[in-house]
Design brief:
Layout: E1 44-48, E2 55-60, H1 64-83, H2 86-102, H3 104-115, H4 119-144, E3 148-150, E4 158-166, E5 169-173, H5 181-192, E6 196-200, H6 207-218, E7 226-228, H7 233-241, E8 246-250, H8 253-266, E9 270-273, E10 278-282, H9 288-300, E11 310-316, H10 320-333, H11 352-367, E12 371-374, E13 378-380, E14 386-388, E15 391-394, H12 401-404, E16 411-417, H13 420-428, E17 432-433, E18 435-439, H14 443-450, E19 457-460, E20 477-478, E21 481-482, H15 487-493, E22 495-503, H16 517-530, H17 533-542
Helix pairs in contact: 2-4, 3-4, 4-5, 9-10
The chain binds NADPH dihydro-nicotinamide-adenine-dinucleotide phosphate (NDP).
């Protein structure tokens, strides 16, 4: 188990012979050690294990021409895929699911090494949700995308249908915190809807999507339908300009704004899944033990690097003491260390930049009088492994960075409230609105509060988990984003809606030529009748007309 020492500043990187290499596009030749996330002189991204600092491998950065070639290959493969029946597409996706479950240990091992999360988190938060997305969309896409009939209350001589057609190519730009479950679940929905996909992974965690592409191909997905373009932000920007039909972006608010503008320039729709500063409200009647356990998990899982992490707690003053003591006790017991062992609860921080943000928030909170009850230490080893201890703080205030800005690390500031209204006001006092959590034994009260919290998802007596409930929509309001992924809404958005209006009877309506005073008066009379109360009663009597 790793012993945590005081933070020693960013690691000093030295030139080094590459010790290990696995996965696709990975070389085993000596390279001088480039900083994490930078492009090497050989035109590759070097990927390091956050839990050990060891070099994991390299991927080749795509040129602008290669981005366009990947998009063209997707364009060439997509029409035939779209013509296939749902059953044929389902067969491929379900085979993908079976292969993934067979290789769960291999994928978890890789994810743990590439991202730094623990083995259990790799299974429960990455591999199993992707398997479920393939199962859910494989079995339900046809029903979710089925044709809908629209009754025309003014034009009964016509029939209207709403049909969903695949958009074409969905570009997916993904972050490093869930490098598999976020892009793979979105890709599965897109593929089941008949689209092709081109993904740009984060520069910090690019290898997993090379493995994903290989697994899709092994499952029988025709070549070109799941393209991967590697590189930094400029490759993501190039992807948006390369002729795709929609972009799903998951990442920071700053980049999300740029993506929104770039998509507008191309006149393509975009879904933005951005950051969060999610609050948990613990009411006086909450089960303290259970709330503490779930909030500790919601705050510290994946080392707090989850968009929906609990990043601030408001607890009723009457139970603040036992609740805080319980959370502190739980945090103290968490085992932190190199994540590739089952008996580790908290893994590593994926990027050095995120460690710096966490440190800034923690330092400012301490300087302004907040008290660290447990944790508070940051370790970066000379090899480049990086860990932040699960930390519980009290004495924080609404104006501190640790309460206002996204920290994205295992930090849990606990504050108190006196009344329900005050708790709601404090929870809503944020530029973000991804998820919010309410803890109470009274479900009706939770439901009532849920209606007043400004967030994309509100959970009662739980945290985080609904991202893995594929049938529920995921997305935020305010700066947390636009649009939804997952569920019915997610897959329907991946299609263009086509309205088809068919004739039942050739009716000589009054609005055609030649225009006349009589037609004008008839039109007005007909509308007055049909939009009037009497007609509504008649309609109710006959059901429909
Ligand atoms: P970034 O915004 O830094 O990057 C996201 C992706 O966008 C990366 O692949 C990045 O490439 C790419 N990118 C960067 N610049 C551009 C550009 N100009 N055009 C197109 N693409 C670009 O986010 P992080 O990777 O740091 O992810 C962490 C953030 O993601 C957090 O704020 C977190 O809250 C949010 N998030 C939101 C979720 C949600 O569902 N709402 C879920 C998970 C995370 P590169 O990395 O190579 O620079």
């Amino acid at each position: 188990m790793l012993r945590l020492a005081a933070y020693a500043g960013p690691p000093q990187r030295k030139g080094k012979i590459m010790a290990e290499s696995i996965g696709h596009q990975v070389t085993a030749r000596p390279v001088s050690r480039a900083p994490q996330g930078s492009v090497t002189s050989q035109g590759t991204l070097a990927v390091y294990e956050p839990g050990s600092g060891k070099l994991l491998g390299e991927v080749r950065v795509a040129t602008a021409a290669q981005v366009r070639e990947t998009v063209q290959a997707a364009r060439a493969a997509q029409p035939e895929w779209a013509r296939k029946s749902f059953a044929a597409r389902r067969e491929v996706l379900l085979r993908f699911k079976d292969l993934l479950l067979d290789r769960a240990a291999e994928f978890c091992d890789h994810l743990t090494r590439e991202n730094g999360k623990t083995r259990n988190e790799s299974l429960f938060m990455e591999v199993l949700p992707v398997a479920d997305a393939a199962h859910y969309y494989g079995n339900h896409a046809q029903k979710l995308l089925r044709e809908e009939k629209i009754s025309l209350h003014l034009f009964p001589h016509k029939k209207s249908y709403l049909r969903r057609h695949p958009r074409g190519i969905i570009g997916i730009i993904s972050p490093w915190n869930y490098p598999f479950s976020i892009p793979a679940a979105d890709a599965i929905a897109a593929l089941m809807a008949g689209n092709a996909v081109v993904v740009k992974p984060s520069e910090f965690t690019p290898i997993i999507l090379e493995k994903t592409r290989a697994l899709f191909e092994e499952a029988g997905l025709p070549r070109g339908l799941f393209g991967v373009v590697q590189g930094k932000g400029d490759v993501g920007a190039e992807l948006i300009r390369s002729g795709i039909n929609m972009v799903i972006f998951t990442g920071s608010v700053v980049t999300g704004r740029k993506v929104n503008v770039a998509a507008a320039e191309q006149m393509i729709p975009c879904v933005l899944e951005l950051g969060g500063k999610d609050p948990a409200i613990v009411l006086a009647d909450a089960d303290v033990e259970s709330a503490a356990r779930k909030i500790a998990w919601g705050a510290f899982a994946n080392s707090g690097q989850t968009c929906a992490s609990v990043e601030r707690v408001y607890v009723h003053e009457s139970i603040a003491k036992p609740f805080t003591e319980k959370v502190t006790e739980l945090a103290r017991k968490l085992r932190q260390g190199e994540p590739n062992q089952h008996e580790v609860d908290v893994g590593a921080m994926t990027t050095q930049a995120q460690v710096e943000i966490v440190k800034r928030h923690l330092d400012e909170a301490r300087q302004r009088g907040a008290k660290v009850l447990v944790g508070g230490e940051i370790t970066v080893t000379p090899e480049g492994a990086r860990f932040v201890q699960p930390t519980v703080l009290v004495g924080t205030t609404q104006d501190m960075a640790i309460v206002r800005e996204e920290t994205f690390g295992p930090m849990l500031p606990i504050m108190t409230f006196k009344s329900e209204d005050e708790a709601i006001k404090l929870a809503n006092d944020s530029s973000y609105g991804l998820s919010a959590y309410v803890f109470t034994k009274d479900r009706a009260k939770a439901d009532r509060i849920a209606n007043q919290l400004i967030a994309g998802t509100v959970m009662h007596n739980d945290t985080l988990y609904t991202h893995a409930a594929t049938e529920t929509p995921w997305g935020g309001v305010k700066s947390s984003g636009l649009g939804r992924v997952h569920g019915k809404h997610g897959i329907q958005d991946l299609c263009e809606v086509r309205h088809v209006n068919l004739e039942r009877i050739d009716f000589p309506a009054f609005w055609y030529y030649p225009y006349s005073r009589k037609a004008w008066a008839t039109g007005l009379r007909v509308y007055r009748t049909m939009l009037g109360k009497g007609f509504g009663r008649l309609k109710a009597l006959f059901g429909r007309y």
